[in-house]
Amino acid sequence: MKWFCVGVSFGVLLIVGCSGEEAPHATATASLPACQPAQLAGVRPTYEEVQRHRRFDFPTPTYAANEYPKTWGYRLLLRVDAEGRIVCHETTDDFGTPIATTPQRQALLADIAQRRYAPFSREGKRVPAIVREEVWEERAPSVHRPLPEAPLDSFRIMLSRSGCFGWCPIYSVEIHGDGRVVYTGEGHVDVEGRHEYRIPVDDVRALLDQVRQEDLWSTDAEYMAGITDNPTYCLSIELGGQRHVITDYVGRMVGMPRAVQRVEDAVDKVSRAREWTELSAFAMEHLQQAGFDFRSQAGADLLVRAIGNRKGFDEHAMLRAIELGSPLRGGQTALRPTPEHALDEMEVFVSALRLGRVALVQPLMAKGVLREGGRLDRGKLDRAFRAAIQGGRRASVRAIWNASDSIRPSLMYQDEDDDDARRIVATSVVMLLDKPYGDDEWEGLAIAKWLADKGAPLDARAANGDSLLHIAVEASDIAFVRFVLAQGLDPSTKGEYDLPALGGAQDEDVALLLLASGSDWHMDDQGKGFLRYARDQRWTRVLELLKQPLEEGSAKR
Prior knowledge:
about 550 residues; alpha+beta; CATH 1.25.40.20; 19 helices; disordered C terminus
């Protein structure tokens, strides 16, 4: 098989023409007024919350083939009242700079003015919210080319995703009209190599119908953004002996029709690609049918990749690999494995604990990972306990604590300052709590309370000076912050860089709670930095509390 596009990992300069000067940024529209500064105060839901609460499909403004706005796509802030109605808007680029209006953008505002979100709430009470939406804009094809009329058995669609400056999965899938699928995993995926299987022909027919309905045959061959270090996606469609290839390098930044992304995602879904890139029962079944040797080095590598994949979702598939003999020792995750990359049983166990894989804890302990010479090893026990706390799952913490009736893990550990290896302090294990980005299942508060009941001190300090209050604040967990403050911790206690916990606040309600509790906000520059940050974040309630106007800093952003 030959691919007709290549990955991009270098800068590309694109020069496009503009269809005349755009009108100055509109401050309001007849359909939806612009927000005043005070209206941008309120709860700011997470991306996931917004997706759950939106009751409509967000529109995609479309431009003619000869139209080129100065920027493609933009950020839209919406004030949503306590009943879910959209009240006003603010339209900016990714840097917060107002952008020019266009007829398409005005039409979008007119469309969403009548739309509703499910009401947002905090602590059981409906509240106004400031919703952030990312608007995708697209350019219509210059000509319409109908998809060839040909039998399904002449259809083949292929999708490849390349690497990036990071951990982007590198793989390809090709789907044939007769239901045959070939998945090839190359790097940063759980299952590597070439694997062939079948899917229902009706699923392939539905995919072909989607390609036709989305008018993909009419799109350009390339949509290349002038940035670096992102993955390249290549979509190749063959039908009746004809081929159309679409190269997508961050195509949304240059007006790529959203239909291209929809078909890319449909190829992944129909081919079940994610169930190979992230180990699943489906992949395990096919590996067994193909005679995969789970007891081999490849089996060990598969296991450590699956356990260490933060996106991995099927812990029972990981357990099945262990049951089928995947070794706990010697597995490697590196793209170019060498002996020093091989992991031992304890490193695999620690990885599982840090990623919150609760279902693996008891089975791995039953394999003796905490034992040395037939006896429970104190060093391994303490290491596992610390990893469980870092993983943020109370069930894992309790399981390690109860690993033995005679030996309990230590509630203290030696913490080293990341910026100064010479600074090492003995401190409480509660200081290992750290909420990973996007981990909605993190149980930091519950673990802190459980550890306190076992005797772990909550007034401890990390080697860099941080307190438990700093951890709770950076987690944006207001219930956790209230709990820590109730233990009597000084809200102005300085931590890393001599900053109080307020210096790490990312949520306005958390900042308000700290200020109401008496936190110092002047920090190390008489408060200028904090005020600037509060203005940039549009924390109007904080500024009102501090008697500082929002407008004072808006022109400097």
